[in-house]
Amino acid sequence: MSKAGNRKKLMAVCAAAIALFFVAAIRPVSAQAPTPPRSKPSTSTHIGGNSFLGPRDIIYVPTRPVSDTLADMYFGDWRNSEPKVMFGSLIVRDILTQGDNFSPPFPGAVLQFAKFLSYGKLEPGARTLPSTLQGLQVFFYVSDGEGEVSAGGRTEPLHKGSALLVPEGLEFTLHNTGTTELTAYMVGDPTYPGFKPLPSFAIKDEDTLRRGPHHAPSPSPFTNQGATAHWAHIEAGFFGKNNGLATVGGISTVAILPMQMGEPHPHYPGHEEVWCAVEGKSLAFYGSQLRIQQPGQAFMLRPDNVTTHSSINFEEPGDKPVNFLWFAEGLKTASH
Questions:
Q1: 3-state secondary structure of 270
Q2: Which residues lie below 8 Å from residue 198, measured CB to CB, with a gap of 6+?
Q3: pTM of the shown model
Q4: Residue 212 pLDDT class (50, 70, 90 cuts)
Q5: Which residue has the higher pLDDT, 336 or 114?
Q6: How far apart are CA 137 and CA 105, in angstroms?
Q7: How many Cβ atoms are within 10 Å of 270's Cβ, its own excluded?
Q8: Are 275 and 324 in contact, with CB atoms under 8 Å apart?
Q9: φ, ψ of residue 235 in degrees (nearest 5)
């Protein structure tokens, strides 16, 4: 398709998306949880939430929130970060760091629950030093390459789509067994006094989860077939507080098919939710703003009960889905 054709396609998708912003709901549930239908359209002022029944419930706020102009403070990209070394040989660049959910001191410094969202690389043949986490657990989502993790006399392979949780207090090593870089997105999960970590590391496979039983379907008639919530979200749930996490509420990947979009919605204070693109190019719909989101870029939604968000896959039908690493705190239920 020509550049002009691509531009027209993008403009059409943007126009459709903008017609849907500033939407609301009546209860604060998790980002992946559906909301039961309401018996009649809402007549109240904009009260926020994180889901709504459909177009009949769209409510426009009387003035544009100041937060709309702050969108870039809530985005991060590992390419803009200086490299650092973890575990002796893992080269790490931060995407989002700790800061303030409402007043980031600099772009990407938005996390108050999770410790960090980062991107790590291990060179071919490299092995990390034996390391033990204290006051912290680390989740790894392998985005490319092959390797293995070893701890407590146990060794397991790692490959693209592997989700690894290394608990606090366990000595472990990572080894790149392939001929290309082993790359992974990393989430720091702080622990707390009295927390009981898993006795060993845990691994889940994204492809296996996607082939398995789906989550309960959304009751909303606007949710696409095969999706589980918010019109278009196809989730592979990895870990939650019921199976190893301490502070972060849940970690998943979420796929969106071509020419589909998630349901725009806001979040209440205390709900720290992050969307990190790992495959495919998409549009991040943030308040009244649109941003092209490439793999390695992430945003956290400002949880002010006003700012809405969605992710839009504007590729042609038949192209690959876009895929996101998603994690949040403030969940009513853990991911599964």
A1: coil
A2: 165, 167, 244
A3: 0.83
A4: confident
A5: 114
A6: 25
A7: 12
A8: yes
A9: -100, 145
For residue 75, what are the CA distances in angstroms to 50, 60, 108, 119, 241? 20, 25, 5, 15, 26
Length of the chain as a residue count: 336
Give the whole-angstrom CA distance, residue 232 versus residue 249. 22
CB distance 252 to 283 below 8 Å: no
Rounded Cα distance between 119 and 43, Å, is 45
User: What is the rounded CA–CA span in Å between residue 196 and residue 167?
Assistant: 9
Non-local CB neighbours of 289 within 8 Å, separated by 6+ positions: 68, 71
CB 72 within 8 A of CB 82: no
Residue 316 CA to residue 109 CA, distance in Å, equals 34
Integer angstrom CA distances of residue 114 from 101, 191, 193, 334: 11, 10, 16, 15
* Site of tokens 């019921």: 242
- H runs (alpha helix) in the chain: 3-18, 206-211
Residue 218 identity (one-letter amino acid): S
3-state per-residue secondary structure call for 30-64: CCCCCCCCCCCCCCCCCCCCCCCCCHHHCCCCCCC
For the chain, state the CA radius of gyration.
20
C-alpha–C-alpha distance, residues 143 and 140, integer Å? 9
Query: Are the beta carbons of 76 and 299 closer than 8 angstroms?
Result: yes
Report pLDDT digits (tens) over 28-74: 333 444 333 333 444 444 344 555 666 666 666 677 766 667 899 99
Domain 3-329 has CATH 3.30.70.100: no
Give the CB-side neighbour count of residue 192, counting CA atoms within 13 A.
Answer: 7
Q: How far apart are CA 119 and CA 296, in angstroms?
A: 8
| Geometric angle at alpha carbon 91, from 89 and 92, rounded to 5° | 135
